[in-house]
Design goal:
The chain is of the alpha+beta class. The chain has helices at residues 3-15, 66-79; strands spanning 23-30, 38-44, 52-57, 83-91. A four-stranded mixed sheet has the order 3-2-1-4, with helices on one face. The model has no long low-confidence stretch (mean pLDDT 93).
Length: 94
């Protein structure tokens, strides 16, 4: 799947807002506000449950990485997530 299609489908999930559990949170991290080199996907099956997290990294921007964006979409769909939350990028500086 091309990166634009994957990003568009992920954005659709995010725009729905909080609709209950299961919930997936996408948190982006990078050295500068313009370059996200890491994304952490956190899954919550229900309120108060132990979160499960998976981390993906890249030398380039993970938001423009076709493979990573396709995997994120598959995780969202396979988890049957009712809510997808996107955290703003956190710049960690060098």
């Amino acid at each position: 799947m091309d990166v634009d299609k994957a990003k568009k489908r992920i954005t659709k999930h995010i725009k729905r807002g909080f609709k209950g559990y299961p919930q997936i949170t996408l948190s982006y991290f990078g050295k500068t506000p313009d370059l996200a080199t890491e994304v952490v996907v956190t899954f919550l099956a229900e309120e108060g449950a132990e979160p499960q997290a998976q981390r993906f990294t890249s030398e380039q921007d993970v938001r423009e990485d076709e493979a990573i964006q396709s995997v994120l979409l598959k995780i969202i769909e396979r988890a049957g997530a009712n809510s997808v939350i996107e955290q703003p990028l956190v710049a960690q500086g060098e």
